[in-house]
Amino acid sequence: MPKLLIKAKKKTGKVIDVTLKSAKWKYVGHEVWKLAPGKIAKGFEAKRETCIVFLTGKGRVTVEGKDIGVLGERMSVFEGKPWSIYIPPKTKWVVKAESDLVINVCTAPAKGTMLIKIIDPATLTIETRGKGCNTRHVTNIMPEWDGSAESLLVVEVITPNGCTSSYPSHKHDKNNLPHESLLEETYYHRLNPPQGFAFQRVYTDDRRLDEAMAVEDGDVVMVPKGYHPVATIHGYDLYYLNVMAGPQRVWKFNNAKEHEWLLKP
């Protein structure tokens, strides 16, 4: 199994690239691009759909040679909601940075039944989940209930300093609907202030997989299977972008039995 914690290999350009080959799995692709003004990112997927999430900064989007316009608005992932664009298979795209720009490019298998769609942040809502020191704020960019993709599920989460998230520990690694769905998952982490760190553990019931990682600003964690709770430390808020995909576009998870008591009123 490949190393689950991925750090940026360079300062600009495509700084992180999770592929089916590098991850040794079947569904999720996840790229992170950091661009200076005037620089470009581009892509083409023959059999995969793409969601480009504009995390910070602005970029001009061209799809199949057609100018879509400038997307992006916020300058921090900890302020407001993101612009995004959905792109079906067999479609060339280019993003040219109009400012310092960070985008996440999320991909998953698709047949091409969907059309290009701009996802306006004004259409997105922020919901608060959990309570106390298990509080987090969730923005569903491409949730399962809105039919916005064939395979992709994309969500961003802000966890206040000192809180846990993706907790109580849960997993979605069995293709056993309606009880549980199989979804590969990636976490792209950001910290505020950026010199902070958080912790993420990925583990299975039998502990054959059991990795605890200190994650820093800009890291990606892969979750091929198992439970995957996150905790940030005092003084540092945590942002993460989740990308999920599997054989069916359903998010059905199971909690770790020993921690379910935490969900009782």
Over the alpha carbons, how many angstroms does the gyration radius reach? Answer: 18 Å
CATH topology: Jelly Rolls
Separation of termini?
39 Å
Strand residues, percent: over 45%
Count of runs of 4 or more consecutive helical residues:
1
Secondary structure tally: strands: 25
Describe this structure in words.
The chain is an all-beta fold and 265 residues long. The protein has a single domain (9-263), classed as Jelly Rolls. The protein has one helix and 25 strands. The chain has one helix at 20-23, and strands at 5-6, 13-18, 29-35, 40-43, 48-56, 59-63, 66-71, 83-87, 93-97, 101-109, 117-119, 126-129, 136-142, 153-159, 164-165, 170-171, 173-176, 180-182, 184-192, 197-203, 210-216, 220-223, 230-232, 237-245, 254-255. It has a seven-stranded antiparallel β-sheet, with no helix packed on it. A six-stranded antiparallel β-sheet has the order 2-3-10-5-8-11. The chain has a four-stranded antiparallel β-sheet with strand order 4-9-6-7, with no helix packed on it. A hairpin with a 3-residue loop joins β17 and β18. The chain is globular and about 55 Å long. The relative contact order is 0.19. The model has no long low-confidence stretch (mean pLDDT 97).
